[in-house]
Design a protein that fits this description.
Helix content is 36%, strand content 18%. By secondary structure, the protein is of the alpha/beta class. Helix 4 packs antiparallel against helix 6. The relative contact order is 0.16.
Length: 268
């Protein structure tokens, strides 16, 4: 599936910004939140973490996060903390489904966004699909330091720093040969330092809070061999969320089953 196959972009104004989104299917609402520096278009171009199969049974609202893709950005790095991005997600939930809980799918940063949203307002959610859980808690400090260093490089006149860093990083085996991987960042160059500093200040909610407030049916899907998305985070979430289901993809072919897995889980 190519980027040209994206549904028509629509926009809604929430919390002072115009949020770009795609609207597919019908039925109960599912909100899909992507990862850091990605977008709806990037996910669709790679065919990864786009979850279009969900539109067979639900109304799938995939949106570009604040400062990403076609959604407006803001100048305060705190706006990109996952706890603040969660407020955007909650505003979208209230707009698209004011009278009923929504289900939510997160990928990496999107998983952080979903977890902050659901621990803030558990009643607004039905089922959760948490994919590619990022570094968190003990593993977050090193990742945050890298984001701050990258932001400094870009701000000091090295706009290609992100691309250079990606080029030097070893590609996890599960992504080798994947067409279009890695995608270029879907963040405007002048906003990138702010977005990455915001990400550096983000973390998942404490595990005890997650365990207490996330009582929803939850599917957790991770991929193996990527230090930026360690399986240890997924395993910790699985242990904390009673009754959750954990799946770890070991092959690239299995990555392409995520959409079908999410769709099956959301109608179970």
């Amino acid at each position: 599936m190519t980027a040209e196959s994206l549904p028509e972009t629509q926009r809604v104004r929430v919390r002072g910004i115009d949020v770009a989104y795609s609207d597919e299917g019908s039925g109960p609402v599912v909100l899909s939140a992507h990862g850091l520096s990605s977008s709806r278009e990037n996910n669709r171009r790679m065919g990864l973490a786009e979850f279009r199969e969900v539109a067979g049974s639900h109304r799938l609202i995939s949106y570009d996060a604040r400062g990403h893709g076609e959604t407006e950005g803001t100048a305060d790095e705190a706006d990109y903390h996952w706890s603040n991005l969660a407020e955007d997600l909650l505003a979208l939930a209230d707009f698209f489904s004011p009278d009923a809980p929504v289900s939510a799918i997160g990928s990496s940063m999107g998983t952080g966004t979903v977890l902050h949203a659901v621990t803030s307002r558990p009643d607004r959610f039905d089922r959760l699909v948490l994919t590619a859980p990022p570094t968190a808690w003990q593993t977050r400090a090193a990742q945050a330091s890298g984001y701050r260093s990258l932001a400094d490089l870009i701000e000091n006149g090295e706009p290609g720093a992100w691309q250079d860093l990606v080029a030097r990083m070893p590609i996890p085996a599960i992504f080798q040969g994947l067409p279009g991987y890695p995608q270029p960042p879907a963040v405007a160059a002048d906003l990138t330092p702010t977005v990455f500093r915001g990400a550096a200040g983000a973390d998942l909610p404490p595990l005890d809070v997650i365990g207490e407030r996330v009582t929803h049916p939850t599917l957790i899907i991770a991929w193996a061999g990527d230090p930026g998305h360690p399986v240890s985070t997924a395993e910790a979430l699985h242990a904390a969320i009673d009754g959750s289901v954990l799946h770890v993809s070991e092959t690239q072919g299995d990555l392409m089953t995520w959409g079908a897995r999410a769709a099956e889980f959301l109608v179970a």
